[in-house]
Amino acid sequence: MPINTRELMEAVGTLTDKESMRVTLRSSAKGAAVCGASCFVGGLLGGPVGLAVGGTIGAVSAGYMSRGRFRPVSHIILHEMNDREREKLKNHIVAALSEFHPTDMAMLLPLLMGNVGAQRAVLSTVASFITNEMRLQIID
User: Which residues contact 71 (CB under 8 A, 6 or more apart)?
Assistant: First the structure.
């Protein structure tokens, strides 16, 4: 029986949730800029105390701005990837697990959930795919 893409993506989603893998949707640089700019302005206006106050205000502002901008990798895989991207990810995962010789889902799922080496191979492959193919940044 061939490997079912949907079942594999659900298993990978479970594994990434277990590892708490999340991605940022391009807001880290903006948050750093807001934090740095407010710290700079605070330092100019208030000296050392202004620097601390500006940094605090900037950090709180950046945190507020980035609310909802971080998503679990499992959400990206299951809901935001199209079928072509899921199929491509499946091929990458199967290639990464080729040394374990999984031929169908009946062999792959127990291997994926019980073998630490297989888990590392899959997580590394997913992280590489998310970073290189989808141009997202993994934060965990």
Answer: 22, 23, 25, 80
